[in-house]
Design a protein that fits this description.
- The protein is α/β, with parallel strands linked by helices.
- The protein contains 6 helices and 11 strands.
- A hairpin with a 2-residue loop joins strand 3 and strand 4.
- The longest helix is centred in the middle third of the chain and has 17 residues.
């Protein structure tokens, strides 16, 4: 994709799985042919860190060479949260020119429903939006065991959809009040799998359980499972699309967290 000035769009890539993640490398391989890439990522696994800004305050962005499509691309990493590395990366690498798009992913594990508030993948995208950069968060459904360690996963289909929607965003821009496009790909999807625009499910998707909980229970004693009430799922939701119909879920996210209640009625309600 080339604009009228023959300048490739500037696209930043990040994730919450760390700079060595195969999902990040697959994303870079898909986007590199039509974009000028900047890769910024946490040094290590930072799953479920939300939009927290924390890490080693004395650290800085460190370069590491990655081989992408038989080319060497310098990526930058720091031992901090995804949102923090995005803040640092945009401030430094985007000082002269803001990115046209930031893509966070491809994540090990789907990001669904109410649980996206704890997602480091989505948190990184939120941070970019707050700095004036449109964003996309791309996740692939995987076994929960892979959420905190790299597993053997086929990234081709998720990369196909990441490229598809990145091209569309760069060509058409995101509509008003769409700050992030959240794309979740079923684990057995193909390039021909249907995709569907969805809304966030109001249920939680992942459940944390502690068998026989006591004050002596450790954080590591928590067992995470997918647990949803199928009977009450919204059929227009991201969870229904991916979990029930097994299609690609494309959810527009707005950072306007204001309730959609009639504000004038609420003004009267609290009098």
């Amino acid at each position: 994709m080339i604009n009228n000035n023959n300048v490739k769009p500037l696209v930043f890539l990040t994730n919450d799985d760390g700079v060595d993640s195969p999902g990040l490398h697959a994303l870079a391989a898909a986007i590199q042919p039509f974009a000028d890439l900047r890769i910024i990522a946490p040094s290590n696994q930072m799953t479920a860190t939300g939009r927290g800004l924390y890490g080693d305050r004395d650290s800085k962005l460190e370069p590491v060479d990655l081989t992408i499509n038989d080319q060497t691309i310098t990526a930058y990493h720091a031992p901090c949260s995804p949102a923090h590395v995005v803040m640092q990366g945009i401030k430094i690498l985007g000082a002269q020119r803001l990115p046209d798009l930031l893509i966070s992913g491809i994540n090990y594990g789907e990001n669904m429903g109410r649980d996206i508030s704890m997602s480091g993948t989505v948190g990184a995208a939120i941070q970019a939006v707050c700095m004036g950069v449109p964003s996309m968060a791309v996740s692939l459904q995987t076994a929960i065991d892979y959420h905190f360690k790299y597993g053997d996963v086929d990234w081709d289909v998720a990369a196909f959809f990441a490229e598809k929607f990145a091209q569309l965003i760069l060509d058409r821009k995101l509509p008003a009040d769409v700050d992030i496009l959240k794309v979740d790909v079923p684990q057995n999807a193909e390039n021909t799998t249907e995709w569907r625009v969805t809304q966030l499910e109001r249920q939680s998707y992942f459940q944390a359980n502690i068998e026989s909980p006591t004050l002596d229970s450790c954080l590591n004693d928590t067992d995470v499972t997918v647990s949803i009430d199928l009977d009450s799922l919204d059929t227009t939701s991201d969870v229904y699309a991916l979990h029930v119909d097994k299609v690609v879920s494309v959810t527009p996210i707005s950072l306007d967290f204001t309730s959609r209640v009639d504000l004038s009625l609420l003004q009267t309600y609290f009098k």
